[in-house]
Design brief:
292 residues, alpha+beta, two-stranded antiparallel sheet, 9 strands, 13% strand
Length: 292
């Protein structure tokens, strides 16, 4: 009989307990340790069938039942693994009770075949993010992520290393010929691939811009805050490079564990100063978060 990966977690916080119960109810008994009986009954039935005479059951039926049980055990293990990884990521004011059953069902329909540890961690951050703030991740985003291979997730994570918080997250891709991007595998071909996946939008002809900006702004790069003074009192424009996140990309970027790119902060400040922006860098905090 398969082991339940959630049974030995010990005492859990209230949000963690509620999440397990919510997932169990939405997916149909998944995760609750005592409901492993469902799988045990299936295995017992399989053994009973195998004990019947050759007249009643064929070799093909036996192989089919064995394959079915093997597949279901793998899916069960994946579901419980993702849920277990999500529990430590829940905030104290998390609201898993507000998760929609349809969202949970679709989430695990897409993620239950994922066994890779890194990809499971991505799915876990998605589940925890939705529990912490229900409505953060659309069903469309979940479906897009289900099409990602591991190398796609790694490429997107590399792109997120260039994220600036400019009222929202923007990956500043200013000049693809720079070594910053090349070292992280970012070029027109790889970015076009992310565009096909539905995570970004590209502008190969010119640059995207933010318009109607006020004179004073505060941006940040992995916790490093910068006060910017633009030339005009109002109605300023600011170029943001050749790549923007799609809505799905924005949602995924919020839970993507990227790290800052060495030297990129200084490069962007230099580029902005060359555009006559006044830059005031706030004192750096003692530690820099790995997430925006």
């Amino acid at each position: 009989m398969m082991e339940n990966s959630l049974a030995g977690l010990g005492e859990l916080s209230k949000p963690a307990t509620v999440l397990i119960e919510k997932v169990s109810d939405a997916v149909g008994g998944i995760c609750k340790p005592w409901q492993i009986v469902r799988v045990a009954k299936a295995e017992a039935e399989a053994e009973r069938i195998q004990a019947q005479s050759q007249i009643e059951i064929t070799d093909m039926q036996r192989r089919t039942m064995h394959r079915f049980l093997t597949e279901e055990v793998k899916k069960q293990t994946n579901i419980e693994g993702i849920t277990a990884k999500a529990l430590p990521l829940l905030s104290d004011d998390s609201s898993p009770q507000d998760l929609q059953d349809d969202w949970i069902a679709n989430f695990f329909e897409k993620s239950r075949i994922v066994s890779d540890e890194i990809m499971q961690s991505l799915w876990a951050r998605l589940l925890a993010g939705e529990a912490n703030m229900p409505g953060s991740f659309s069903r469309k985003t979940v479906n897009i992520i289900s099409d990602l291979e591991k190398r796609d997730a790694e490429l997107f994570t590399n792109l997120c290393g260039f994220n600036w918080n400019i009222g929202d997250l923007f990956p500043l891709v200013l000049d693809l010929n720079l070594g910053f991007y090349e070292k992280r595998g970012l070029n027109y071909e790889s970015l076009a691939h992310l565009e096909v996946l539905g995570l970004v939008k590209m502008n190969q002809v010119s640059e995207f811009s933010r318009i109607h900006l006020p004179k004073y702004l505060v941006f940040s790069y992995f916790g490093r805050r910068v006060k910017i003074t633009l030339p005009k009192d109002n109605e300023n424009d600011m170029r943001l490079g050749k790549v923007l996140f799609s809505q799905a990309g924005k949602e995924l970027a919020r839970v993507c564990t990227s790290s800052p790119v060495e030297g990129f902060f200084e490069y962007v400040l230099s580029a902005w100063r060359n555009q006559s922006y006044l830059i005031d860098v706030e004192p750096q905090q003692s530690s820099v978060s790995e997430k925006q």
